[in-house]
Amino acid sequence: MDSGVLQERADSIIIKRSGDHGCRQMDCEKASVAGSVSQRACVYCGARVVLNPITDAYHIIHGPIGCASYTWDIRGSLTSDSDLFRQSYSTDLREKDIIFGGAEKLKRAIDEIAITKQAKLIFVYATCIVGVIGDDIEAVCREAEEKHGIRVIPVKAPGFSGTKSQGYKLACDAIMNLIGNSPYKDIKKQGVNILGDFNLAGEIWLIKKYLKKIGIPVVSTITGDSSYASLMKAPSAALNVVQCAGSSVYLAKQMEETFGIPYFRVSFFGVEDTSQSIMHVAEAIGSEATIQQARVFTESEREKSLLFLKRYLPHFEGKKAAIYVGGGFKAISLIRQFREMGIDTVVVGTQTGKKEDYEVIENLVKPNTVILDDTNPAELEMFMRKMHADILVGGVKERPLAYKLGIAFCDHNHERKHALGGYEGVVNFTREVNLSLNSPVWNCLAGR
Amino acid sequence: MGMNVTELNVNPCKCCTPLGAVTALYGIKKCMSILHGSQGCSTYIRRHMATHYNEPIDIASSSMTEQGTVFGGEQNLIKGLENLIQQYHPEVIGVATTCLAETIGEDISGIIDHFYQSHEMCRNVKIIPISSPSYAGTQFEGFFRALYGIVTHVEMDTAPNGKINIITGPITPADTRWLKILLDAMKIQYILLPDVSENLDGGHGIQYDRLPQGGTSVDDIAHMGGARYTIELGTFVGEEWSPAVYLQQQFGIPYSRLDVPCGLQAVDSLLNKLRELGGTIPTSIQKERERFLDAMIDSHKYSALGRAAIFGEPDFVKGVVNLCCENGIIPTAVITGSVCKGFEEQLRPLAEKAAGVQFVENIQIKSDMDFAGLEECMVKTHANIMIGNSDGRRVSRKLTVPLIRFGFPIHDIVGGQRLRMLGYEGSLVLLDRIVNTLLLQRNKSFRQDMYDAYYLPLVQNEPAVESAAAGKGMKVAVSYAEKDIKKRTQEHPCFTCGSGKQKYARMHLPVAPKCNIQCNYCLRNYDCPNESRPGVTTEILTPEECLNKFKQVKKMMPNLTVVGIAGPGDALANFEEVSKAVMLIRQEDPTITFCLSTNGLMLPVYAQRLIDLGVTHVTLTINAVDPKIGAQIYDHVTYMGVTYTGESAAGILLGNQLSGLTYLAEHHIVCKVNIVMLKGINEHHIETVVKKVKELGAQITNIMQLIPVKGSAFEQLPLVSNFEIMEMRKTCGVYLEQMMHCRQCRADAIGTLDNDVSILYRKEVLAAQQKASEAGEVQKHKNTCLKKRLAVATKNGMWIDQHFGQAKEFYIYESDGTEIRFVERRNVNKYCYGKENCGEKTDRMTRIIDTIHDCDAVLSLRIGNAPLTELQSKGIMAIATYDDIEHAVKKAAAGL
């Protein structure tokens, strides 16, 4: 097979040259090239990712069935209480609704669950064709709110109206719509909110545990393991910390403007990032004793983690990694984490990275590393082969490709069933990388 | 739609039309597909298929944008075709539409024509338009729409070739391989459409080819017009989308539409048809048939245990129904997500015939149904086995009915692409799976079932032996010898009226803050050290803190015999914390007695786990054994995520309390029942409660006064006098031992019943002691003053990732070179002083510099010469780096 790189994509591929320090501009933050087989999803996907972990809300997908089918309970967001968010609700529009409009069907659906299920909070997601067939979902939601005295929040997320990032923004707007007038906004500020963590495999519980250890109360988690009631308390926090920036910095900014809650960003991937994040929180709102406690805690965890890692280092010697993930932040975290493990990253790409992200990446990686924006299977295949990657970190769509090429794989997307965040995540990640890289099955391949 | 919610699809039992279209296209040689619509459609479908088949699934998208939606997506689609050809060099491309393309009225054939006109060199690529909007059906219809598109768009060579067309619906790659082997063995010349056997279940060869190399070639398809006969395996797709019907109408090729060959008779029909068409049945297949028949007979009595729920694509469902019915497995709940004409009409007679043998009357068969609907059908018909795709796992778990996975999607286990159900052998594989599941299910439960059905009624009618823990006759594994439990009871201050109550101390661990019911007399608050009643605590402890506190208390209080968990909420509403605390303390002190109190709502779930944990004493609060009375006492009950009120709340609670109590008592756990005496509500009912709980095995009851709590619903309820309480206890003492010495303790009480010393063991008090010893150290730390203040241009807060001139925010740190302290995050826009400095672009630099005016240095990814000079003049050092913050700041501070 020949190179297969499309002309329009040439500027979205950078090969790091020795001596370069992020001086080249990545062509990124654009719509995908048609026919390139992008790995990206859509606006609706972005909105759904952020809002869906709100555990006790009814999430109604207004549109034909596909969008509901493919997003039904596929993510590992855990709940400590209601299970409602794991159900799929869709108006399942049919041919006749496309002709006559679907607004009436939506109205009846909302009425039904408002009355028979005593719903308190409903999100209504409009998918691709809802706008095209002229359903005014904002009006439907407004009327339903008045009629039933509950919150019914529209999320207008047709897939074609931008990228996944646009969907994140819509979700943040919906959350502000929900909490903007919360009575808690006038309450004395204390404690922190955790933004941009979706409690995959219980990761938000880990973060809460760390903060509890050092005596910092968590007010609200947005949106992992959250509920209507817990979200309404968010405006009473003294600080917002943002884990997944791509999805939630926009919300943090709005909360800063509206409620005067300052924010900063944190990362709980890898030993160093986790420790630094805990220290930041302690230093920002903790007492002297808290800071001291945090120092002792992070030091002891760091030591434990490094001790654990040390045993594995010989297994990782000379191994090379490829990374293809959603956002720039996660890619950079992973490069750093691999560095802690003695593994060089030789191919790295993201679906929605920004120019600055790529600049940092270019600075971090060694010469000849391939850097990709919104790449596709053909390019991934070519560069992973060329660079002799031993393991790919990505989402489930990329997994079969890696295996076909005889490359190990680590699942770092929302479907995984084990925590990769926090100190526990370091242990899990190290184990997973080791067991895939060094599995005996690779010895059975010809030529090994 | 389900019957429960009529206006919404609740948990879909279907995927969308384009997914089916793409699946069919994977059965064509060197074919790629492109979806005309939003980027998300292709990504979602790829993800869904990749997890099922474990194969790389590459589907292109025309990546429609806002503009394309308003002005038409021709440009997008043409660009997409061009790029797809360049990357994959396909010989065939299927262009499948999505909802969006269909709704805005795209003319796909027209666009393809335009593409050929402007791309002469691409004329050798066969581009096939397929109409597949999601609102027009499910993946089942999408699959046939694609096949229909293919046979109608390939120019046919009508010269007779003597071959037989074999057309299949969505069957697995493994079954497809079987079909090909069968046709070869019968010496049939055939054209199979589609052939997913290789492309959706590929091997690991030397070379990976991103373009699917297996499948039916366009050349072969072109000869379908000259075939002598068509067999279509599937009967439910509408004639308007049936390739067999089209080939007959267009080229006069006779056809048969047969059920998918699952089950003896359906396989026979296919084989007979093939024999009629000149095929020969080899002995090996004859032997397979004999083996299958033999196995059917061997299993028939086990098969008869089955009441099957069958769900999925219509033809698949019919295949399984056929197999079940001829084996005596009764299909009681049969659904498909498709709107399917004739579904019920065809299947009901088959199912009813099978049901009639065992006089089963209720059969539910429905098309256009979701999983909420399936669940209702299963409950109504008592289905005991499910056959269908992975999405049924939630219903399976909820109703505890085992699920045999088959169909699409299967993404929670591996091997969906290799499942077999066709042919004699495939049918037998599926039959064995069903029968074995039924057998294991029965083997697992028959001892208990018989015990409950025959033995329990025997002993329940006998007069109860004096003590439940010693009595009941039944021997179950217990974690503690009965004698040991008796001794423990004597040493438990709350379970004994003897001297134990003064001699022995207990501590309550407030580890359980949440509650799952609301009693009208209760108001839990955690911050009143001077109030003493249940539900009150000054603090909540983590399991680890519980262990610490236990160690402290044990040190000072050698007569501590019991650790109890009494809220402040309900112990079982916080089971994880509770079990962890118990385990930690058990490790520390294996002799301690564990006791907990609960409202009993979650007992059916956790009773066995409590026993496993070594809890020997349980206090249950049961205020009524009549839901009508209970409804006045409980405001609401939250059970399994649903909140109930009124009599249904009280009923659920009561049912669980009674079955929980029975279970615990049967397993020799000492159970005390607390009853709050509520004037005008349950005072005349208490005797009944005592009798009932005695019957179920409670050893002692504790009738208590209501403590009226301000703010609770029963705030105004009249008080019960001491006299009245004693009278009531006396009355009930006739039936069962009464606790006379209850102190109605706090959730964090410590000490003997008469001397609560919990105040000495509060976290802050303990912490203060520890602090005193550390005080010296803290002082030392304060002396190392952090001198330098540094600003960092960062967006992500972890490493330096911003140009100085583009920074919209700075993270401020203090450091002395060895330690680093985060101060705050500053927003540049907030630091504009006065109007004259604001808004103008040229003043941006001023604003940035104002933001960090108090810093000694600033770190950024890069910085221009002008701001560098400007900063220098203000005495601020500028450092360019891409390091992580901690490292860079320390290094910079050390150098300042």
From TrEMBL, chain A:
**Which residues does UniProt call coiled coil?**
none
Q: Which Pfam families match?
A: Oxidored_nitro (PF00148)
Keyword Lipoprotein (UniProt): no
Query: What keywords tag this UniProt record?
Result: Nitrogen fixation
Please state every residue range assigned to the domain named Nitrogenase/oxidoreductase component: 42-434
A biological process term (GO) from this entry: protein-containing complex assembly
Record pathway: Cofactor biosynthesis; Fe-Mo cofactor biosynthesis
> Which GO-annotated molecular functions does the record name?
nitrogenase activity
Give the protein's function. This protein may play a role in the biosynthesis of the prosthetic group of nitrogenase (FeMo cofactor).
Tell me the PANTHER family matching this sequence: NITROGENASE IRON-MOLYBDENUM COFACTOR BIOSYNTHESIS PROTEIN NIFE
Instruction: Name the protein family.
Output: Belongs to the NifD/NifK/NifE/NifN family.
Protein name listed in UniProt = Nitrogenase iron-molybdenum cofactor biosynthesis protein NifE
From TrEMBL, chain B:
Which keywords does the record carry? Answer: 4Fe-4S, Iron, Iron-sulfur, Metal-binding, Nitrogen fixation, S-adenosyl-L-methionine
**Record PROSITE patterns:** MOAA_NIFB_PQQE, NITROGENASE_1_1, RADICAL_SAM
GO MF term set: 4 iron, 4 sulfur cluster binding; metal ion binding; nitrogenase activity
Q: Which cofactor does it need?
A: [4Fe-4S] cluster
Q: What InterPro entries does the entry give?
A: Aldolase_TIM (IPR013785), ChlB/BchB/BchZ (IPR050152), Di-Nase_FeMo-co_biosynth (IPR003731), DiNase_FeMo-co_biosyn_sf (IPR036105), Elp3/MiaA/NifB-like_rSAM (IPR006638), MoaA_NifB_PqqE_Fe-S-bd_CS (IPR000385), Nase/OxRdtase_comp1 (IPR000510), Nase_CF_NifB (IPR005980)
One Pfam short name: Nitro_FeMo-Co
Which Gene Ontology BP terms does the record give?
Answer: molybdopterin cofactor biosynthetic process
Which stretch is the leader sequence? Answer: none
Radical SAM core domain residues: 501-743
Output the NCBIfam families linked to this UniProt entry.
Answer: nifB (TIGR01290)
**Family per record:** Belongs to the NifD/NifK/NifE/NifN family.
> What is the annotated role of this protein in its UniProt record?
Involved in the biosynthesis of the iron-molybdenum cofactor (FeMo-co or M-cluster) found in the dinitrogenase enzyme of the nitrogenase complex in nitrogen-fixing microorganisms. NifB catalyzes the crucial step of radical SAM-dependent carbide insertion that occurs concomitant with the insertion of a 9th sulfur and the rearrangement/coupling of two [4Fe-4S] clusters into a [8Fe-9S-C] cluster, the precursor to the M-cluster.
The protein's name is FeMo cofactor biosynthesis protein NifB
